[in-house]
Each structure stands twice: as C-alpha cells, then as structure tokens.
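Suppose a classmate hands you a notebook page containing two proteins, each written out with its sequence and a corresponding row of structure tokens. How would you begin to make sense of it? This section walks through that situation. The first entry is reproduced here exactly as it would appear on such a page.
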Amino acid sequence: MTFRIVDLSLEIYHGAPNFAWDPKCAVIVHNTTESIGYNMTQLSMSTHQGTHLDAPYHFLDDGKTVDQLDLHQCIGPAILVDLTYKQPKEPIGIRDFEPYADRIMAGAKVIYRTDWFKQLPDRRYFSDFPYMTIELAEWLAERRIGLIGMDVPTPNPTDYDPVHKILLGAEIVVVEGLANLGDIGESEFYFSAAPLKIRGRDGAPIRAYAMLGL
C-alpha cells in the first residue's frame, strides 16, 4: 500500500510564539556529545503550545483529561471545510458550514482551513484571525461531532470561554494551531492528532498529519 503524508504541525523551537499569558517555549541544550557522549535537550512549554489538542478538562473541572480521551476520537477519517475566503477578524458562522452539513454528523472529525497559520510569527496570528461564533459552536455541539480542528490558535479570541465550554462540554476534542491544510488537496482524508499521554491534565502538543491515498 502506498500513501502520502502531509505534515500539519507547527515547529517547536526556543522562543516559539505563544499567547502572552502562556508559559514561554524553551528548548535548551542539556547535554552534548562533547560533555557526556550524547545530545539531550530540556523542553519547557505549555500543554497548548503550537499544534495541540484541548481536552474537556481545559475549561471544565469535571471534564475528561487528556489521558482519558479515546484515541478513536483523535484519529480517523476527516472532512476539510474550505474557509480560505474568510478575512481577518471575520466571523465563521453556521452558513459557512452548511454546504458540508450532510457529512457533519455524530462522531465526525471536521477540520477547517483559513490559511491563517501563514501569519506566523507575526503577533496578529493570536488576535486577528477569522473566528468561530457561539452559534456555530452550538450547532456543532448539537450534531455531536467528535473533533473540530483549525489552522488558527483558538476558535475565538474574545468569546473563548463560552465557545470552548460549548464544544468541550459536548466532549468534542478541539485541535488548534494546524498548518499546511492547503497541501491536502482533498475534501476527505485520514487525520491523526494523537496527544501526549499527560496524566490528569488539560491538553497536549500533537504531531498532526494527514494520510492520503489509503
């Protein structure tokens, strides 16, 4: 079997951009081949650095933690919603998703593309992106989808609390900070966003990718 992999992840590096109130990303040399015979690096960052996944516990104290997620929710067939026509700070509403409504159903993995990741490392990446409305979050929750992914840093920069609580309250996995969605070239693909198994916590970095031609 032959297939093509598209890397959908942002790089992790020392000083990589993040939200102002998040822990800074630090990638520090700990040992080298000269000092001890092998290279080793110390890594310090937020559980929501770069391309990452939100578990319900991120906003809900009684929600599932990242280690409790069913990996079937994070890996499998997905649909791609093309929103590249959206402008900075423009709302993303139900109407934008309606052309895909027949495939947005219980358990579905839905990824939307804006190409906003190209704004990095500009700080506007964290503030001026097209944003999900509360109404759209409610619509997705009503449909009981399994995962919503996006190439912006968070669904909504101002109403982040209600939007996250609606999605996570419906036990929808939220994948943020994707990249390179334009390289997929198909409306349906196999998606993988397995998180690090961090006990009892709110989210984790992921190496997200698409598998095409399966």
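The notebook's second entry, a different protein, reads as follows.
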Amino acid sequence: MRPEPGQVLHFSEDPTITRFVPHVAATAQESEPYVWAVDDGRSPDYWFPRQCPRAMAWAGPETTGDDRDRILGPGCGERVHAVEYGWLEAIRTARLYAYRLPAAPFRPLGEHAHVAVEPVVPLGPPEPVGDLFALHAAAGIQLRVLPVLWPFWDAVVASTLRFSAIRMHNATPR
C-alpha cells in the first residue's frame, strides 16, 4: 500500500473519516496542530495497528557491512521491522485502512512525516490495507518477532543503520 505521485497516505483503523482536521496528538512532540501523513518511503512504518510498538531499521549509504549482517542478517534484505510476540494477534486481526490525500497542502516534517496545517479531504474512500503480514512479505521487509524490543532497539541505535521507532511506550518495559 503506497501513495501514487501527488499523494501522501494516512493509515487508520477508522474507516469513517471524511475530513482530516489539524490537531495536537496526545503523544506529539510538536505543539502546533497538524494533519499527519507519510510518503512512499515511510508508508511501511504504518503497516501496523496504531498502538503496536515497533522498532524499524534499514540500510542506508553509510551502513557498514558488519552492521548490515549483524542486525539485518546476511541475505535478509534491506529492512527489518521488529515487534513483540504479544502483538501478533493484533497485527493478524487489525483492519487497517489507507486514506489517499492530496500532497499539495503537506510539507515535510523531519525525515518521517508530512504535515498540513489546514483541513484535508481524502481523495476517495479509504482502502482496506489487507493482510499486514502479506504486505510486509510482498515488500521484502523482514518482520522479526521478539520477546522484548529494547535489546534490539539498543543495538540498532548504536549501529550505522537508519532507524525509526513508533509507540515504544507500549512495549514491554525494560
């Protein structure tokens, strides 16, 4: 599930949204109200139930061969998403929808998101994303299941890989 040219995506478990209005999310580090969306490169970060903690890592130009083999694994592709065993059923049963939004009102915010400061109407009805495991497989993204995310995350942030994490406050405590 990727945006087409001129689009960004918003993923939600709510299929009834007809208009996105800027707001300050409870977990936001930004104080300005935004409508949030992602581009093609960051769409896979959101192929999960909203509250699911996940740690993600991928190879970049600066990634060493040692870090690639140690964290991604030899022959395991360019990207890994890690989740905890306790979230497998939620991932399996989640009903996730992708909203296609016009890219014009959005601007990049950091490396991970696009934001708009005005209300945005979707370009059409939301599209069911489908089987989240199959989506990862089709994209060639390794989905790793761990008892606890923190040791993996600590290794990733100390490496030369690029990385992101979402909802880590919902992970099993250290």
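A careful reader of the second entry would note: Helices lie at 65-72, 88-93, 132-139, 150-157.
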